[in-house]
Protein 1
Amino acid sequence: MKRTDFKNCSCAMQRSMGILGTRWKPIIIYTLRDRKARFGQLDALIENISRKVLTSSLKELEEDGIILREEFKELPPRVEYALTEKGKALIPIMCQLAKWNEEYYEESEPLIL
Amino acid sequence: MKRTDFKNCSCAMQRSMGILGTRWKPIIIYTLRDRKARFGQLDALIENISRKVLTSSLKELEEDGIILREEFKELPPRVEYALTEKGKALIPIMCQLAKWNEEYYEESEPLIL
DNA sequence: TAAAGTAGTTACCTTTGCGTAACTATCAAA
DNA sequence: TTTGATAGTTACGCAAAGGTAACTACTTTA
C-alpha cells in the first residue's frame, strides 16, 4: 500500500498516516510550531537530519498543504517555511506527543546516573 | 539513523517518533482505543493491513511498553492485545489526529459527487 | 477422515525511507 | 580570481518497512 493509497482510505486515521506516518515529518512540523524557518535553520535545528530528507519531506508536506514555502527574490536567496492553517492545527497534537514521551521516558528506559 | 537511535535522542519528539514513526503503528493503537482485541480481530478491523506487518508491529509495540499481550491457555488458543497505561495515554492524541484529518479532508482532496 | 478456526511464522520479494558525499547556481566581498 | 553564503540537487546505496502467499500446530466438529 502506497502513501497515496493511505490518503484515500475510508478511515481518517489511515489518511492522517498517509500524510504524517514517517520518522521525520512530525519532527519538522514540531520544529515549525513557534517560528518560521529557513532551509539552513531547519537543517541546524533538527539534530541528525540530512539535507536530502529535509528537501523531500518539505516538498511532500507542501503538496499536502501542511507547510508554505515562501521564496524571496534576494541575493543570496532566502526561502522561508511556515505552517499553513492546516499545519497549525497540528501544533497542540505534536506538543502532546513530545510531552507524552517526557512523562513516560524513565519508565521504559531507566537511566544510569 | 536507526529506530533505536531515535529512542535515545535528546529531543522528546524524536524519541516519540522512534516508537511511533511508521504508517501502521498509530493505526493499531487507535484501533485499540476502546477495546481489547485478538489478533484476528485486529486483522479484520484494520483495512488492508497484512498479518506480517501486524505481527511485527505488535511485537515492537510490546517491547516499547505500549501494548500488553495476554495469552490464554485455551483451545483453540486465544490471545488478547490491550493498551498499557503508557499506551492509553496516547488515546486522546490519536483521536485528535483522526479528527484533524476529518476537518481538513475536503480542503485538500475535493470529492466528485 | 477431512474441514474449519485460532494465532501466528516463514520465505521471498519490492518499495520506501533514509544516509553520505559531491555538485550546482547565484552574487557579493576580499 | 577565489572564497563564502544560501538553498538546494544528484547519484549511489543500504536498511527498514511493507506485501504476498504458503505453511505450522492444535483441537473440535462434521
Note: Residues 1, 38-40, 43, 51-52, 54-55, 75-79 of chain B lie near DNA strand C (CB under 10 Å from a C1').
Protein 2
Amino acid sequence: MKAIRGTRDILPDEVGYWQWVEATAREILAAAAYREIRTPIFEATELFERGIGEATDVVGKEMYTFVDRGDRSITLRPEGTAGAARSYIEKKLFAEGGVQRLWYVGPMFRYERPQQGRQRQFHQIGLELFGSDDPRADVETVAVATDILQALGLKNLTLLLNSVGEKDDRARYRQALVEYLTPYKEELDADSQDRLDRNPLRILDSKDEATKKIVADAPSILDFLGDNAKRHFDRVQMLLSELEISYQLDSRLVRGLDYYTHTAFEIQSADLGAQATVCGGGRYDGLVEELGGKPTPAVGWAIGLERLIILLQQLGERSAIVPDFYVVSRGEAAESQATVLAQKLRRSGFKVELDLSGSAFSKQFKRGDRSGAKACLVLGDAEAEAKTVQLKWLQTGEQKTLTQSELLSAEGELKVALNQ
RNA sequence: GCGGGCGUAGCCAAGUGGUUAAGGCAGUGGAUUGUGGUUCCACCAUUCGCCGGUUCAAUUCCGGUCGUCCGCCCCA
C-alpha cells in the first residue's frame, strides 16, 4: 500500500518544522487579535462555484467533487476563504461587532499534477478580516504575514503589490486589454489565445516569450483605477512605507480567483523554482454578498505551508526535541526502578527517554549519546540494591551517585544544570 | 491536462545481456558478562518500482503502468 499520488506523510523528523511554524503564526496572529476558526474540510460544491468563480481553473478542473449517499454534491475545500465567509454569514459573526478577524490552518485539496511545493493535499494557514474597507485593514494583514515570515527567519522574499480596482474598474480594464490584444491574437501562445475571452487578465503573467513581448506594451490596470480605488491604493502604499515594509509594484499581478478587488499581493521566494509564491492574498469586497450575505468588505491571505517548510529546510533551521535524560538500566530490579524513576521525572517536567533494549551497558550508552540527551541515568544491580542512581553528564563525563529520592527532590538544581 | 528526466537496501550510491548486485551512512551483534562520543570484526537486497515482451539467459534491451522530479498550465 502506498499513500496516493499527491499526498504524503509528514514524518517525525519533519514535523518539528510544522509545529514551529504553527506556534509562531499562532502567537503573531493572537498579538494582532485574530481568532482561530475551524470550518469543515468539505462543503457544498456550490459554495466554491459561486465564491471562487466557475470560470477559474480551480473550480473548472481542480476540485475533488463527489456525490454523497444523500445525493448532495460535495467538494473537498480547495482553499479556506469561501468556507470562512460561509461561516461568517451563516453564524452571523457580523453580529459580534463591526470587524471580525479570523484565521485558520489545515489541509486543502486540488487535483493538479504534483511537483515539489505542489501537492494534491496541501496545507495553508490563512487569515481573513471581515467588515472593514479601510486601507489600514489591507496593510494590517500584509504586516501580519511579513511578521510571521520574518519571525521564521526567512530571507530573500519579495512582496509584490497591485490593485485590481473595483468591479467596474476591472471590467473597463478587461475590455481595454482585450481590445489591445485582439490584433495580436495569432502571435499569442495557445494558452493565451484561449484565455482571451475566458480570463484575459491571466494573459498578463504568461511565461511565453512572444506573449511577454506583446504584453509589455499593454495598458496597465493602474491607469484604469477609479478615484476610489486610486485613493485606497495610495493609502495602502503610504502605510506600508511608514511601516518600512518594502514592496514592488507589479501591475501584471492578478489573482486567479474571481473574488478579489482592490489590493492584490503575493510574497514570493527566489528559492522555490516554479512554485515561487509563499503567500498570496488581497481584498475581496464582493465575496460575502456573492454568497448571500450583506455587502461586507474583507481582506485576507493564505500561506502555503509545504512551500514555507521547503524554505525553512533549505535554511537548515531545526528544532529537534532532545531528551534531558537517557535512562540506562540492566537487571530486572534495576529495570523496574528505572521505569518508575523515568515516569516520575517526566511528571516533574523533564524529557526522559528510557532504553528498552536490555543490552550491554556500552550499547545503551552509545544510544544515549546518539539521542542527544544531556545526561544518562544509570541503574544496575548495585544501584537497585541500594536504591541509588548514577547521574552521568555526557559532555563532561562527570558522574556521581545519589539516592533515587535525592535525585527526585533535586528538581530545581537539575533544571538549572540542564539549561547550561 | 501537455512536454521531458529519473526509479538499485531505511538513506546516499556503483554496476553488468550470463554462476556470489560494489561501496558509504544508518541499524544489529561482538571485541568490552557495568559506562558513550574513537577503533576493529561480523551481520544487514535470492534482488534492481510493478506488469508484460524480446532472448538459451534481463536489474541491464523494448512496451506498458505506477511513482517522483523539472518545465508548462494553475496556485499557496
Note: The radius of gyration of chain A is 28 Å.
Protein 3
Amino acid sequence: MPETKYKKDEDFNEWYNEIVELADLCDKRYPIKGMNVWRPYGWKLMNHVDRQIREEMEKTNHQEVYFPLLIPESLFKKEEEHIEGFGSEVYWITHAGTNELEERWLLRPTSETAMYPMFSIWIRSHADLPLKIFQIVNTFRYETKQTRAFIRVREIHFFEAHTCHVDFEDAEKQVKEDREIADRLLKKLCMPYIFCKRPEWDKFAGAFYTISIDVLMPSGRTLQLGSIHQYQDNFSKPYEISYETEGGEHNYCHQTTYGMSERILGALIGIHGDNKGLVMPPAVAPTQVVIIPIIFKGKEKEVLDACEILSKKLAEKNIKSHVDNRDISPGTKYYDWELKGVPLRIEIGPRDLDKKEIILVRRDTGEKKSVSQDASIETITVELDNISKSLYENAKKFLDENMHRVQSVEEAKNKKGIVELPWCGNDDCALEIENILDGNTLGEPIEDDEECKKYSCPMCGKPAETWMRFAKTY
RNA sequence: GGGCCCGUAGGGUAGCUUGGUCGAUCCUUUUAGCUUUGGGAGCUAGAGACUCCAGUUCAAAUCUGGGCGGGCCCA
C-alpha cells in the first residue's frame, strides 16, 4: 500500500509539505518567498471553503464589496496603534513608471485603512446602521520568518468582514453573531476549535479586544484560523465615522471586524489528512462521490451507462459526483482520488451489475461494502453524513486529549498541546511562563469560569483572575 | 542583526573528496503505438537536467570567487 514518504504521526511538518505537493494544491517554486501559485485543485478547495463563507455572510445580511489593493500612506497612518502593529510588515510602492511617487502607497495588509475613509462618507444617519460588509481578497504581509504553504505566506487569501454600529452594545451583538458564524462554518468543516480572548499585548493593532479562533494541529502546535475584533470607537474617531442620532446628536460608530484566511485550508489538510493524502469533509469536497467503472472488454457500455445513471441520480439529490472514465487502471484511480480526499468512492463492474449492487468505499476508514442499487442513494447520503460525523469526532477527541488544565508550570512543561494555567492578570507573569514553556500565550477562555479563582498564579502566587492558555503556535 | 547549509530533467537521486572513464546513474514523470483494466500493468520506440557569471586548467557537474534562488539555527 503506497503511502507518503513522511508519516503524519512521525514527522508532521515534512508530511504536510509532501501532501501539499502531491495533492496538487500549490506550487512553491514561484521565485518569491512566501508567494505560492495556487494550483487547480488547491484553488478549487479554497473556493469551496469561500462558498461556505459567502453562504454564512448572506444568511447574516452582510454585503460583499471589493476595495482597492493600494492604500495611500496618509490614510494608513491615521490610527497610531495600527501603524505600530503593521508598519514593519508592509510592502511599499514608491515608484510608478519612471516617476517617484509624491506619496507612497502600500499593499493592504488588511483593509481597515482603505475602507474607513469611505465609511465616513457613506454613513450619515442612524438609519444607515448597522453597516455590514465583507470581502474576500488577497492581502500582503512581509514575513521575514520561515514561510509554509497556506500557514505562513506573504500574499494571503483573506476573508474580512467589517461592521459599524450605533453603540458598543450593538457591536457586541455582532461579535456574538460572528462567533456563531465561526461555529457553524467550522462544524461543517468538521473542525473543533477554541475561542481565546487574546492578551492585551497580543491583540490586533488598534482593537479594544481580540478573540482568536484557534485549532490544534496534529504536531501539537496551535494554528490561528481567524479572529474577531471589537474596535469600540478606536478607529471611528481618527477616521471620523459618525452618524446623526434620532435626537440630532452626532455620535461615533462602534466597529467590529472578523477575519479568516487560507489557513483554514492548511487546517483541513493537517487535521483530517492521513498517509494516503487529503481527507475532505463532504461539505467542502469538490467531488463528494467518485464513481469508478471497472471495464472489461465487451462490457464497457453496460458498465459506463450504469455509472452515468447513478451520477445523474446523485445530482438530483445535490450530491456532487464524478465518473472517472480515464483509460488507466482502476488501482491508479483509487490512489488518485484517495490523495485528493474524495470522501466516498463507488466501484461498479460487471460482477456488481449481475448482482444489482454497487461497492462503496469510505475514504476516512477504508471500509468497503456492497449495497443494492435500489437503496444506493439513501445509503450514500447516510454514509456522507457518517463521514462528517466521524471526522469531527476524531478531531474533537484529539483536541480534548491535548488540552490540559494544570496548576503549576512544572506540570505544564510535560504536556503536549494546549495548557491552561491560573493567571493573576499581570503581563510579566504570563510572559515569564511563555519563556519557561517555550510557547506563546493564546489568551483566556471567553466563557466565565469561577473555578480558577480557587487557585493562585504559578509565578507570583497572587490569586488567579482567569485561566490563561499557552501553546506552541504556528 | 549574527552564524550555518544547500542548488544535477517536472519530482526524487548517483557522480563531486582525488578534474579526464560523463556522450551524466537509477526511480518517477512524459510522448506515440500495441496490449491491458476488481489496488499504482506490460512491451517497443522517443522526450527531458549539471542555477548563472567570471576564474584556474590541455580538460570543470567536480576546484576558486561572485551573483541569484532556497533552507536552517541563534538574537
Note: The two ends of chain A are 32 Å apart (CA to CA).
Protein 4
Amino acid sequence: MTEEQKTPEINILNAAKEIFERKGMAAARMQEIADEAGINKAMLHYYYRSKQLLFEAVFKSAFSMLAPQLNEIINADTSIFEKIRNFSSNYISFVIKHPYLPNFIIQELNRNPDFVKKLVAEKNFPNISKFKQQVNEKVADGIIKPIKAEQLFINIISLNIFPFIGALLLTGFINVNEEAYKQLMEERKTEVADFIINAIKLK
Amino acid sequence: MTEEQKTPEINILNAAKEIFERKGMAAARMQEIADEAGINKAMLHYYYRSKQLLFEAVFKSAFSMLAPQLNEIINADTSIFEKIRNFSSNYISFVIKHPYLPNFIIQELNRNPDFVKKLVAEKNFPNISKFKQQVNEKVADGIIKPIKAEQLFINIISLNIFPFIGALLLTGFINVNEEAYKQLMEERKTEVADFIINAIKLK
DNA sequence: AAATTTGCTAACCATTAGGTTAAACTAAAT
DNA sequence: ATTTAGTTTAACCTAATGGTTAGCAAATTT
C-alpha cells in the first residue's frame, strides 16, 4: 500500500488518512502511521508537530473532498430532479472509492462536537438556502408534494450516505456477502434517485 | 448522572454504557468509567475482568435493545405499510431517548468487522426473509412499485437511523440549532413513513 | 571550501492506562 | 467469638504511547 509520493508531507498525510480513517483518532497509533508511510516515527512530529495537528490535517483534507459533492446538490443550476439524480450517482461512485471516509467524518465530528462550529464558520461550507428556495418553489407550483426542504435534504443525504456507514450491519441483516452488497450499491446509483423522485413527484 | 443502582454489576454496566457510547472503546478510560460509577477502578476488573469484556457486555446490552425494534419491521403480522409506519415511529421515539446508541453500534462494528459474524450467528439476530417475501408479493400483486426488498429495507433503515448518526453534520448543513433539529426529528416520526410509502405505493 | 541550514535516525523520556495484589473491611455461617 | 467468603481500597507494576533530543548526513548558502 506504500507508494512513492512527491513530498514527505503528502506521503505522511496519505498514510495518516489510511490509518485514521480506518481506526479513528483514538485507536490510531503514531507508530502505525509511520510504518504505513515507511518512515521514522520522529518524522511525523518533525512535519506535523503532534498527533492532534496531524489528525486535523487529515480531517480537513477528508472533509474538503466531500464538501464539493454536497455543493453539487445545493448550488447547481439544474432542476431539482436532475440535482437528485446527479448527486446520488456521483456521490455513490465517489464513496465506493473511499469507503471509510463518511464514517470517519461522522465519527470524529461526534467525538468532538465543537469541530462542527469551526467548520461551519469556514467559507466553502455548504449552505442549503438555495436548495431550500428551490424546493419551496416547486411545492408552491404543484410540481412536488408538500415537504419541508430540510426533511427532503435529510432524506437525500441519509439514503446516500448511510448504506456505506452501516454496510457491515446491513450485510448482516440482509444476509449477503460483500460482493453482493457492492452490487446493491451499484444499483443504488440510479435506484436512490428514482425512489426519492417517486416519493415527491406529483403525478 | 450517578444514580443508585441495585447491584454493582448493573451500576458498572450503566456507567460503562455512558462512557463507551459517548467516546467509543478506544477513547474510553477505565478510570473515567469508575468515576462515573462512583467506585474504585479495581472494582471494574473485579466484576468484569478486563476492558474488553466490559466493553463486550455493554455492546451486547446495547445491541439487544435495538434488535427487537428491527424484528418489528421484519416479523410483525401486519401490512407492509403498517410495518413501515410502526417501525419509523417506534424507532425514532426510541432513539430520541438513546441518541448515542446507533452511532456506537455502527462505529464499533466497523472497527471490529469480525464482531458482525458472531452476532449474525446468534439466535434473535434479525433476518429479513419474511419481509422479503412480503415485498415480493406486493410487487407481484401490483400494490407497490417494483423494488428489491433489499433496497427497500436499506432505505427504511437509512432514513430512520442516519439522521441521528449524522445529527451534528446535518445541523451544520441545514443551519439549525439543537432544539429545532429535535423538532425535525419529532416530525419524522410520521414524515419518514409517508415519504417511503409515497415512493413505493402504486396509485 | 567552509559554514550553515535542513532532513533524518536511534535512543531516550515522561506519562498514561490497563491490570494486579495484598491487605482491610463487612457480614453471614459455624 | 471465630472463621470464612465475598467485597473494596490504595498502592503498585508494566507496557505502550506520544513526544523529545542529540547527533549525523546531505544539501544549500556564502
Note: Residues 29-31, 41-42, 44-45, 49-51 of chain B lie near DNA strand C (CB under 10 Å from a C1').
